[in-house]
Recover the amino acids of this structure.
């Protein structure tokens, strides 16, 4: 345990954790989910989910890692012996396979589109329809999808092989500021466009008529996904922290950065979409069908399209490393494998597990299963299973564990161990008995009950 690698600084951890949180969820998923579900009305519900459910669980996850200095399976074992709780950690390892198998495909598309942007391909697209045809044509070729999945995956494996400080931390310290700068450039150019206010009002004016129980389900599922919760990614990153680090403060920062970047991505995307008079409710195709021609047609469009796909690639890489690290840490801690052996073995397993998702757009496109009346391919199923089932389920058990098994008193006592940096946004806030009570209420009652209701709703039982 003493030779476990640690982050070299608090900033290193924050950037790595923010890198995990800020991903395709913020740039590829959030804008279209918000667009389809009432804009600001969705944003409002989503913020409530982040604050009341995401934030407490984020604290608990990082703390579980910091306290036990272990991967998710080892963390539960360390606190509760060889009991059934270790399967909650196991669920995380399973989720890491499921998520990465579709994530790496979208990551591969992002890499591919960065190259296409570099070659100036998007200039020839007159309309999003042409762009959609291009996207479908490319995806109908299995070698293209698998090839870019391979390139994307290789980048992640190389980073993970280099370890915590020299790999994950170094990559995040370089990539996250670059991501932020690119995003600011795109936001700024978006705001300069004619009719950019239409995009802004779409994002910030609420349409309450779109809000129903399903919106809540989506917002909660997305809150888990976007904060990388429920599968032990934050637990694993937390396990490379020392007792001196303030978990509460770090959690606020990570949740804040993640939300800020999702909103900024929404601004960057919707200003362009509205100023070109297009429909924002284009589903997942928004980023790959609608944006390339719209960005390319702007003055200086070559560079904006390139920047956008670079942004998407960076966001995907820093998240994907945290997903793979969960399974790698499991092998390193529990099986005593070297980092190299663990990375190569897990990397190969997850790489092959993703192939059916890659083939969902071509050879296996007709292989579907019926989920809630819709035909889902492997790709859709992996996305659905992870966001709507595995992550909330993991979150549910983590809340139950913290609230009833480990106990709120013990959780708060451990949270207070770190050096506090701020009275309001650090662990000092938990010293007051009222905020401890609120924390207890959220983790013992609100989180598990709401997650449970979401499940009941999802399976049509309420
Ligand atoms: N938070 C990432 C995103 O928003 O794209 C996705 C993710 C990363 C989910 C790590 C889960 C995870 F453990």
């Amino acid at each position: 345990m003493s030779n476990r690698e640690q982050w070299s600084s608090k900033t290193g951890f924050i950037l790595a954790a923010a890198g995990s949180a800020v991903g395709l969820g913020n740039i590829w998923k959030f804008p279209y989910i918000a667009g389809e579900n009432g804009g600001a009305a969705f944003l409002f519900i989503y913020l409530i989910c982040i604050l009341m459910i995401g934030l407490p669980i984020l604290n608990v996850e990082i703390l579980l890692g910091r306290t036990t200095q272990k991967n998710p399976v080892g963390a539960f074992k360390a606190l509760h012996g060889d009991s059934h709780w270790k399967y909650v950690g196991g669920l995380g390892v399973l989720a890491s396979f499921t998520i990465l198998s579709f994530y790496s495909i979208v990551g591969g598309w992002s890499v591919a589109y960065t190259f296409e942007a570099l070659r100036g391909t998007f200039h020839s697209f007159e309309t999003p329809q042409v762009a959609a045809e291009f996207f479908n044509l490319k995806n109908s070729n299995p070698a293209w999808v698998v090839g870019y999945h391979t390139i994307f995956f290789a980048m992640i494996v190389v980073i993970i092989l280099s370890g915590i400080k020299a790999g994950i931390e170094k990559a995040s310290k370089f990539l996250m500021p670059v991501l932020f700068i690119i995003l600011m450039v795109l936001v700024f150019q978006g705001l300069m466009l004619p009719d950019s206010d239409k995009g802004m009002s779409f994002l910030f004016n609420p349409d309450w008529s779109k809000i129903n129980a399903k919106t809540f389900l989506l917002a909660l599922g997305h809150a888990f996904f976007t904060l990388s919760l429920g599968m032990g990614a934050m637990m694993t990153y937390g396990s490379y922290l020392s007792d001196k680090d303030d978990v509460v403060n770090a959690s606020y920062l990570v949740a804040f950065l993640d939300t800020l970047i999702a909103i900024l991505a929404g601004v960057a995307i919707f200003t362009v979409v509205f100023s070109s008079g297009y429909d924002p409710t284009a589903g997942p195709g928004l980023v790959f069908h609608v944006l390339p021609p719209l960005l390319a047609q702007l003055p200086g469009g070559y560079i904006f399209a390139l920047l956008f796909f670079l942004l998407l690639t960076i966001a995907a890489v820093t998240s994907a490393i945290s997903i793979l690290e969960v399974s790698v840490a499991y092998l390193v801690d529990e099986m005593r494998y070297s980092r190299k052996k663990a990375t190569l073995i897990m990397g190969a397993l997850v790489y092959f597990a993703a192939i059916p998702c890659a083939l969902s757009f071509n050879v296996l496109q007709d292989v579907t299963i019926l989920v809630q009346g819709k035909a889902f391919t492997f790709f859709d199923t992996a996305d659905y299973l992870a966001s709507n089932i595995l992550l909330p389920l993991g979150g549910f058990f983590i809340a139950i564990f913290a609230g009833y098994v480990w106990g709120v008193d013990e959780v708060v006592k451990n949270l207070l161990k770190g050096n506090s940096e701020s009275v309001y946004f650090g662990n000092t806030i938990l010293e007051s008995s009222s905020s401890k009570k609120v924390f207890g209420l959220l983790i013992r009652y609100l989180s598990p009950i709401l997650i449970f209701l979401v499940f009941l709703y999802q399976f049509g039982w309420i």
